[in-house]
Write a structure and sequence with these properties.
The protein is of the alpha+beta class and about 110 residues long. Helix content is about 25%, strand content about 30%. The chain has helices spanning about 35-45, 65-80; strands at about 20-25, 45-55, 85-90, 95-105.
Length: about 110
């Protein structure tokens, strides 16, 4: 079963059960206090749940390095929000899409 929810990370509603996965695409740029928002999202994940935060710069002059730099920034924010096993995945589009993935580790 898939239950998709659309909403603002700044005004998260209450949910009946924790999520298995959370996906955010090209949105973190607009979040106030990204590390705090990521920590709130981590509390919504079940133990072992995954978060994926993807970014593809869309402004003129964007490059693969622009994507990579933003990916490293997102990965660092996931780490500061206490996600574990943080890694970067890259899709070779133009410019590249970089996705930071983290795990909600039990006891962290």
């Amino acid at each position: 079963m898939v239950d998709l929810r659309l909403g603002s990370v700044d005004e998260l509603p209450e949910f009946d059960a924790p999520f298995d996965k959370i996906l955010a695409v090209n949105t973190m740029l607009f979040w106030s206090e990204p590390v705090a928002r990521l920590a709130e999202l981590r509390r919504l994940l079940r133990p072992g749940g995954l978060i994926a935060v993807a970014h593809q710069p869309r402004r003129p002059g964007a490059t693969d390095e622009t994507s990579a730099a933003k990916g490293r920034e997102i990965a660092a924010a996931l780490d500061r929000a206490a996600f574990s096993e943080v890694r970067l995945e890259t899709m070779r589009l133009k410019p590249a899409v970089v996705c930071a993935v983290g795990v909600n580790e039990v006891g962290r």
